[in-house]
Amino acid sequence: MSLDKVEISVSDTFKIDVDKNMTVPAFKLDEKLLESEHLYIPEIDKNYVFDKETTLAILAGFKYNRRVMLQGYHGTGKSSHIEQVAARLNWPCLRINLDSHISRIDLIGKDAITLTEDRKQITDFKAGLLPWAMQNPVALVFDEYDAGRPDVMFVIQRLLEEDGKMTLLDKNQVITPHPSFRLFATANTIGLGDTTGLYHGTQQINQAQLDRWNIISSLNYLPNQAEENIVLAKCANYNNASGKKIISNMVKLANLTREGFINGDLSTLMSPRTVINWAENHEIFDDLKHSFALSFLNRCDDLEKPTIAEYYQRCFGTDLVLKAVYSG
Ligand SMILES: Nc1ncnc2c1ncn2[C@@H]1O[C@H](COP(=O)(O)OP(=O)(O)O)[C@@H](O)[C@H]1O
Ligand SMILES: [Mg+2]
Predict the structure, then answer these.
(1) Quick one: 191 and 229 in the same domain?
(2) Which end of the chain is more exposed for a tag (fewer CB within 10 A), N or C?
(3) What distances in angstroms separate CA 278 from CA 45, 50, 247, 249, one per listed residue?
């Protein structure tokens, strides 16, 4: 299937400071596209804030067919950056979370027995996610790449061969990727395994395999002001002096949990999504502490709650009452 592309302006589309003449190819949102893969084009989050370096790395992936891996702590916006870039390019995007129960068979496919019209049983090969994605104009994202199980990584290794072709052994078929097939990955570690103890379940990535990624880019949490603006854009009722103060303190608290996580004091952190949830829940319940518990505290380890209560006190100047800690 061939689809039409148009060149769009990078600075206008992503609101990043680059040469005004810089463009990137995007699919034309016409009937042909809508009929084909439109279900897989991510929805645009119009308040999304693009980080310049990360966005340029992802765009290089789309424009020059480079394999791009994004690395960073969780909640920094790795997956959503790829998704939101794809959304603006009208590029179908499929995310596969390697952290989940995905298996080799899900990826490659398997023989299935089906009935023909005259009720004969025949064995038919049902293609898995990879052969399907490869043959379509799809940006395939391996999320949590460093959490992939060895059997799954072995399959991916084949996809990363120099010419990008994949042999379906079961079917004796070589799959040549669609010219607009793209490959991305996100990871919490840089493939050296869990050197810090923060990411249980991550594996060391084979160095030879890491080498097959053309671009490795790191992403950190946004500056406070940028994150406050994102939350404000999503929760318009806070757009006044007292509302802004609350959001600013929420973001401050979120950053303390992130530092705590990095230092090993906490095992859970507040992502930008948690802050947005909290702001929204606060509007519903009209109670800052209660909505904090509903949005974050209740999913934290009891042993860590006193630390979080101390952060809360530092940001809001009032004490959190920690019921759960004292319940035997
Ligand atoms: N730059 C950003 N602009 C707007 N929202 C963001 C941004 N970065 C992160 N978020 C929000 O934070 C949430 C977590 O981001 P995500 O991409 O899932 O993080 P990661 O993949 O790094 O763990 C997303 O759902 C998104 O709404
Ligand atoms: Mg992610």
Answers:
(1) no
(2) C
(3) 19, 22, 10, 12
**pLDDT by residue (tens digit) across 170-226?**
667 788 899 999 999 999 865 555 556 566 666 666 666 777 889 999 998 889 999
d(CA 14, CA 54): 11
Q: Both 158 and 263 in a single domain?
A: no
Same-domain status, 17 and 126: yes
Distance (Å, rounded) from C-alpha 297 to C-alpha 82? 29
Q: Which atom of ligand 1 is nearest to the CA of 45?
A: 4
Q: Which ligand is nearest to the CA of 76?
A: 1
Q: Which domain holds residue 123?
A: 5-218
In this prediction the pTM is: 0.85
Q: To test ligand 1's pocket by mutation, which of 220, 271, 274, 296 has the most ligand atoms within 8 angstroms of CB?
A: 271
CATH code: domain of residue 188: 3.40.50.300
Tell me, in angstroms, the distance from the centre of ligand 1 to residue 272's CA: 6
- For residues 134 and 176, membership in a common domain is answered with yes
- As for ligand 1, residues whose beta carbon falls within 6 Å of it are 48-49, 72, 74-80, 186, 222, 230, 271-273
The torsion defined by the Cα of 89, 161, 128 and 79, in degrees rounded to 10, comes to -40
Last residue in a domain, options 193, 218, 243: 218
Residues with a beta carbon under 5 angstroms from ion ligand 2 = 79
What is the tally of structural domains in the chain? 2
Q: State whether 137 and 250 are in the same domain.
A: no
